[in-house]
Structure formats: C-alpha cells, structure tokens
Amino acid sequence: MAILSPSIDLEKPEKIALRTQYGKTLAELGEQYPDLVVLDADLACSTMTKYFADAYPDRFFNQGISEADLMCTAAGLAAVGKIPFVSTFALFASGRAWDQVRNTICYSNLNVKICPTHSGLSLGEDGASHQSIEDIALMRVIPNMTVVVPSDAIETERVIRWAIDTEGPMYIRLVRPNHAVIHTADYRFEPYKIEVMREGKDLTLCATGEMVYHALLAAKWLSEKDGIEAEVLNCVFIKPFDTETLVKSARKTGKVMTIESHQFIAGLGGAVCEVLSEFQPTPVKRLGTRDQFGQSGKPDDLFKAYGLDPQSIYQEAKAFIQAS
Amino acid sequence: MSTPMQNQISNITRPDVQTKLSIQDLQELTRQLRLDILQMIFEAQSGHPGTSLSCIDILTCLWSVVMTHDKNRPDWPERDRFVLSKGHGAPALYAILMHEGYIPKEEIHTLRQVHSNLQGHPASKYIKGVDISTGSLGQGLSAAIGMALGLRLNQSPAHVYCLIGDGESQEGQIWEAALSAPAHNINNLTAICDRNGLQIDGCTEKIKPLGDIGSKFESFGWNVMEIEGHNFQQIIEALHRSKSMGQETSKPTMIVAHTTKGKGVSFMENEAGWHGKAPNAEQYEKAVADLQPDVYYQRLREA
After folding, report:
1. Residue A100 touches partner B, C-beta closer than 8 Å
2. Which residue of B has its CA nearest to A100?
3. Considering the entire predicted model, what is its pTM?
C-alpha cells in the first residue's frame, strides 16, 4: 500500500510516457538478462522497443506487419528458454492475434510477456480502428494469463522488472501519451495487490491504468468541494484480482465506482462486479466506453466525449453518492 | 515376407541408441505404427486417420532416424525439436512417441478420453517430446522459427523440424512465417509439407488451390526439395541434406513431401471423407486386414 505522496501535485503533475519508460527499462535489463529477447511488428519506434533494438540488435526481432507470426515466434523463443517481450499496438496484440495468444502461448503456458502500447481511447487521432477498448476482456478470459495495467511510468518500470523474474504468460497494457506520474521514486510495487492510493469512507473509486490519475483528481475535488471522501484503488492487477483489498474497501464505503479506458463490459468493471457479487454484494457504477466504438480525437477530448475525464468522473461520483 | 525396397541407408548415431535401421526395418515399424494409429482412433471412435497415415512415414524417419534426442533426458537443451503444426496428426505423433519411449504403451487406449495425456491435438502440458501445443492450424511454423532463433542465440547445435499440412497452408500465417524465416537467415530449420492434396471438404486444388507449393516457398527465399513422402530413402536423404544445406546457404529448407492421405488402408487412401472420421468395427477389421504383412507389402509393391 502506498498513499499518494503529498509531493505529487495532481493539478500540475510531471508527465512521462509509459511506453518510453518501458523501452528504456528493457534496454537497462538487457545486460543483466542475457535470455531477454524483444519482438515487435514494425512499430519499434512507436512502442519504444527501439531502445532495446539499438542496444541489443542480435536479440531484437522485427517480425514485420505480421502479428500472428509475431506471437507464435515469441512462443517458440520461450519454448527454448528465452524470455520474450513482445510489443505492438494493443488492438493487434489482443485482437488480431487472440487465437495465437490463447493456443500457442497460454495453452502451452509459455513465458511470453506481451506488452502492447497504444491501448484505450488515448491512442487518439488514429480512431476506432486502432483503439483497443476490448483487450482487457479478451486477455483476462484466457487461462494461465496474468493481466497487468500500470498506472504511470514509475509503476511501468516496477512491473517490467517484476515480470522478467516471474514465469508465465502476461499481458501488460500500456498507453501512448505522456501521462501524469502519480508515484514517487521510492514506490514499492506489491505484485498481485491493489494499491490503495487514497483512503476514504464514502465511496470506492476502482480505476486502472491511466484512469487512476483521473480518479485521484476527481477524489481530490470531491473532498475539497463537497466533503466527500473517496477511497481510490489502483487496480494494477486485473488478473489475478486482489479480492481481499476490494472487499475490504467495499465493506467500508458501501459504494463502488469502476473507471477504465475500455468497454464497461467484461473489463475492470466486469472483474469488480464478479468479485463483489460473490463476496460482498455492493452497488456498483461502471464508467467506460458504453458498448460503443471510439473515434478520432485528442486524448483529453476523447476522455471528455466518453465521460472519462476527471470532471466527468467527479460529477458521476457525486451523483452516485447523492442517488443512494 | 518380402519388402518392396532393398536399399540400405547409413544412419546417424544417436546418443541413446546404437541401432541402425534398414529400409525394411522402417517399413515394418511403420506398418506396426499404422496399426497403433488405427487402434487408437477406433477405440476412441474419434480422430484423424487420413492425415495420420499420410505423415507417419515422415514422423518415423524424423524420430527414429534423423533427430538427435534422448527419451531419458527429454529436457536436454541440445536435443533437436519437432513441431507438429498440423496438430490433427496427433495419433501419428503419439504412435512414434510411444515407440520411442516418451509415452507409456498402455496409454494407447486413452486417446481423446477425459484425463488422458493423449489429447485430440498435442499438448505440451501432458507429453514430454511435445514442446509446444498445436492444433489451431497455421501457428506451428512460426513457433518453430522462434525455436530456431532461440537455439541459434544459445549457440546450440540443435535443429528444428516442423511438419505442416498442405490444407493448413491456406492459413495466412503460414505465409507470414514463410516470409519471416529467410528474413532472419535461419539455417537450423527444416519444414516438411505433407502434400496429400486433400482437406476436410475435398481436394485442396478445388477448394483453394495451393498450386506449386515448392516454387512458392522458393520464391519466398527457402531451399526447396520435392520428395515422395512414403519413400524412406528419399525422406531420410532429404532430411539430412536439409541440415547441411541450411548451413551452406543460411536459408531454411522446405521439403514438399508428396503423400497419399490414408496411406496403407485401401479404402481410406485418397478419400477426403477419412480426414477426421473413425472407422466402425467392420471397417476397422478391414483396415487391420490391409495392414497384415502379406497384404500390406503386396500393396506397397504394386503402388
């Protein structure tokens, strides 16, 4: 557990791209881990695997625009003891290559780390054809798969360093834009745990990925403007899900809101509802794209359009409290 | 008992066994393995006899003659690797792995049953000797390329073999892999295409014509050889040659093996209907009769 540090100014945060941190971390790990190999599908300059490619060209494989081939080649590398990290855009990693991820990687339980970038609405201007807002659902339903969604660059670095030492297939979901840093340099990442970033008694805000920052900002405003104390959970692990921490929070607040840059079906909202309905039935309000496709636009404009900007979250939370 | 071919072949010495198999030995072994395949599928009343019978001669040459492996050290890093990309040929793989000692012989009765190691398609979870699960078509060749890349990085002498189907080659991923292997200058990979000309619904050339598979791979940058896929001399020579060719050319090799689907059972041969259907008791009896030495070798001589 790590409560948000007072040194972090949510109104004017430092911003670092998760994908840049990802690429740099891989390059840093190259020397210590001779079995680390990295694969990409003609997006190395976008996913930032180029940092590793430049440092270790012999251990970088550009598979071209062939995502199915990409995933199975990674599986083969893992089958002979290598530790492959695989990147492309999230839509292609999870959607186009789903059968390959399921059958060749996960059914064989191979040690492949799928680290797509450009997930969610914040992919932005390329629009719906490239916005992956179904990937959490698609990946968490596969047996053997672990699904991790870091909330900022510092957590991304921690997750990558943990993942390289942890056996088994993983889907580590990253985003494109420069994004608010909400952890300090001394952050101690706890695998498989929800991070309680703000304590509160009136409402639980469960967020994942880049939405954790938005939830924190909304919680700040709820407290300052309305005296509503929201507990903010950083759900970095979608699978396995930290049932204990969620149930404890839900028991305390009695209301749970989920926030994700993803369909409101079967992603974080789905996971939270599955857990709560079984262990702690609680009213839940799910925020996400509402069974609809995305569209072109700047990330912040898209978040506003789909009700996922801090202001919309603040208003939804307030309405949720007032309605109950 | 006589055999249709009298040629002796020189075998590589494997670390686990010091035997040399003659062509006659291979004929006899594959006759028995054909019986095992049919027994498995008959008892399960499920499975793919046509494809298993078309590829068993190739699998036997790989596992019993060409590949370096050791059943007592199934995780030996230097072992050659095999990927059955056309995973529905599982009964053939299980038959040769039973013969080679990777699967207990008594499991022959468990194909496709609950809690069996002999899943409908090969699963690495259950069987030593299966390094990667297959079954969803088109994926194994890419996996074999990944293995070859990894083994090269490990500076391992191991070679990777991958069997694909001709029908399977209608999957786009086969051609992604076909582009990929030469791009990486892979020299430790031999793919074999079981070119039996049939798929579930009929002839490959009527459904989605594959044409000259060899020249397609050649134009993609592979070394290509065409062989008779039931001729042991040709199979073994091509497999050995592919390994040296890889080293000489820094290219992967594709061996297009022209085969007969259902080979060895008269009424199954070249019949698409026997792709994925189990024989009934009467048909099984007839198939077993076809695989008795006198009939079997007589038919081979006439072929």
Report:
1. yes
2. B139
3. 0.95
